[in-house]
TrEMBL record:
Pfam families: Med27 (PF11571). Keywords: Nucleus, Transcription, Transcription regulation. InterPro entries: Mediator_Med27 (IPR021627). This is Mediator of RNA polymerase II transcription subunit 27. The keyword Transcription applies. The keyword Transcription regulation applies. It is found in: Nucleus. Belongs to the Mediator complex subunit 27 family.
Length: 295
């Protein structure tokens, strides 16, 4: 592989040299006879100069052919599948389909990437259940599902979170009774809509204060889209069916670290902005800020 890259680099340099010398030939032809050729025999001097330039171009062309001949040819024609038919379209509307197709492929690749990350996070939080042998006269106590709990238990959990973070403004509404949706505002930095299903967080969306509170519409700002994606990763990381109240408090403690989203520099590179974005990732243990490329 390294040898192929060296040969390709050599071929590109040969082409660059050839283009430069061809440009010198055209410049000489366009300028014609010049004052530096002198008064005597200036035609012969010009012809000799042009012959020398053409000889150099001929040698450069030979070098390009040799460099290209040393390259490893591709194993076969690249198969583009049905997308090759798009080049036969003449209407402007249908030609735009290719760009949309590329974006859909990128979106699918991103879905696979985040799915793999979510799978790895969930696998690290697996709980090994231990079972004891009971006699036939005893029955195992049925555990209450975390998705089906009384509303007052959920209300007490939200109240305790509100007391735990006095600088976070929390309002509650219940569009999906009895499961609440809370609006958590971090000062003037951002707001988040957090949907619960029982004692477990089911969905999070982060937006600017000027945007709507719609739970299923993402923010129009890229910075809050990134924070939303990271909240989903943290939601999976802190997921704990055995201790749901602790999982919610841990998530809110992690989410609270975004109150310095636009003021804290990246812990690794020390810059406030990278690719026009602040550090949108927070370490799940230390809560230190990082850019997406620096984490």
């Amino acid at each position: 592989m390294e040898r192929d890259l060296e040969q390709l680099n050599s071929a590109l340099n040969s082409i660059k040299t050839l283009r430069s010398n061809v440009r010198r030939v055209f410049e000489s032809v366009s300028n014609g006879l010049r004052a530096d050729h002198g008064d005597e025999g200036k035609e012969n001097k010009y012809i000799l100069e042009l012959q020398e330039l053409l000889t150099t171009v001929n040698n450069d062309l030979r070098d390009v052919e040799n460099s290209v001949a040393n390259l490893t040819p591709p194993p076969g024609a690249f198969s583009l599948g049905s997308t090759t038919s798009l080049s036969q379209e003449t209407t402007h509307e249908r030609q735009a389909l290719y760009g949309q197709l590329v974006n859909s492929y990128k979106w699918t690749d991103k879905i696979h990437e985040y799915s793999a990350l979510a799978g790895n996070i969930l696998s690290t939080n697996s709980f090994n259940k231990t079972y004891k042998t009971f006699s036939t006269t005893k029955r195992r106590k049925t555990q209450t599902s975390n998705h089906n709990v009384p509303s007052d238990v959920i209300e007490n959990l939200i109240t305790s979170i509100n007391k735990l973070f006095p600088d976070v403004t929390i309002t509650t509404n219940r569009p999906f009774v009895p499961n609440p949706v809370i609006q958590a505002s971090l000062g003037r930095v951002l707001k988040a809509s957090i949907a619960f299903k029982g004692l477990m967080i089911e969905w999070v969306v982060v937006k600017a204060h000027a945007e709507s509170n719609d739970l299923w519409t993402e923010s129009r700002y890229k910075v809050f889209k990134k924070v939303t994606e990271n909240c989903h990763a943290a939601m999976c990381h802190f997921h704990s069916p055995m201790m749901p109240d602790l999982a919610v408090r841990s998530f809110m403690h992690w989410f609270h670290s975004y109150n310095i989203l636009f003021s804290a520099p990246c812990k690794r590179c020390g810059n406030h902005l990278h690719n026009n974005l602040p550090p949108t990732w927070r370490d799940l243990r230390t809560l230190e800020p990082y850019h997406e490329e620096c984490k």
